[in-house]
User: What shape does this take?
Amino acid sequence: MNAFAALVARDIRIALRQLSDTLMVIVFFIIAAALFPFGVGPEPNLLARMAPGILWVTALLAAMLSFDRLFQNDYEDGTLELLVIAPQPAWLTALAKITAHWLTTGLPLLVASPVIGIMLNLRPDGYGVLMAAMALGTAIISLVGALGAALTLGSRRSGVLLSLLVLPLVIPVLIFGAGAVEAVIGGFPATQQLLVLGGMLLACVVVCPWGCAVALRMAAE
Amino acid sequence: MEGFTGTGLACIRSDRIVFAGLDFAVSSGDALVLSGPNGSGKSSLLRLMAGIAAPAAGKINWQGRPVRDDPEGFFADLHYVGHRDAVKPALTVRENLSFHAALRRGDAHIDTALDQVGLSALADLPARLLSAGQTRRLTLARILATPAPLWLLDEPTIALDYRSVDRIRSAIADHRAGGGIVVASTNVPLGIYDAKTVDMTAYIEGNHTLWGDSVDDYSAGDSA
Assistant: This one.
């Protein structure tokens, strides 16, 4: 557990010292979402109708920018070899990297999303469920993305390959995440969608760190 | 047999047999030096020994038990220093060492280790400011910060000045006096006394591929 905390603390510390990498993801999120009013026209009703979908799609694309460097530095400087032969379960090491990734990417996206909601004229009753669904959704994206990052580690053009691998896998998150917000705005409860997201999160917590650990071991060889 | 042993080890890298039929045995307090020209498989053998890569054939035993049976217990007993330094430029010297110590078991002695490699005065500097030799010393401080009976060192003296080489030599001697085992690869004489030697040239499979073609024929066929 000591090693788990040390790994999370180290990744957060590096993220804070190299703040531009973290900010780049958030700035991309805001700029990409800001393009929509220019593209489809600034009509408030139209934007309000599209807001949940735009928020989820742009958050997903912004998160993709962060995965190529998740394991890349550790792979290049030899830290990955040492993580693989550290005396604790490899899935715990992978889970520590994923936790740090969520805290440095998922959480900032979560915090920025209501700001973009205001910009896109999202209805006031949608914010509570938007935050809840985003909290679950970004965690799932971190887990699935880390698995993709570990699988593509060491291959050429891994950033593109990673997106091709991960984006189709997170379509369910997009459907239920945007669906939850739309349901609440339409006057229905969003319990079902949130429960499905919660279920997907639990499944990913079981499968992804384990798969990630196997892929990292193969990459270190 | 107690100690660290390997029998019939083979290593294959992208269809090429690097070495085959390699045996080694080191017991408590002993040292093993791997010698041989560049590309003879010294680093590959150390990576097999550390459990980073799996051998294509053969067995490795630690204290009489196959390492495959209890990898975590084996990993807890070893320190591996590869040819890459695993130093994060954004973190300070002390933060780098503390992180690696936290990954290992046992009490960490960060300040003692930094003192031993002569980096105490630089402890709070970002590691990106270190020279190549200082970075290497920080890497070697890892093996002094937490206790482990088995040291696997890949070219430990690379980029070091003669004073640092002396420090490493005495650290290795102390470790052996305490019953520890050292396996080191080197191109230059390390000055480790009574060390056994594995000469990698004896195990090179004549640059043959898995299919029996020599590598030269293979590449010629490839380009044709």
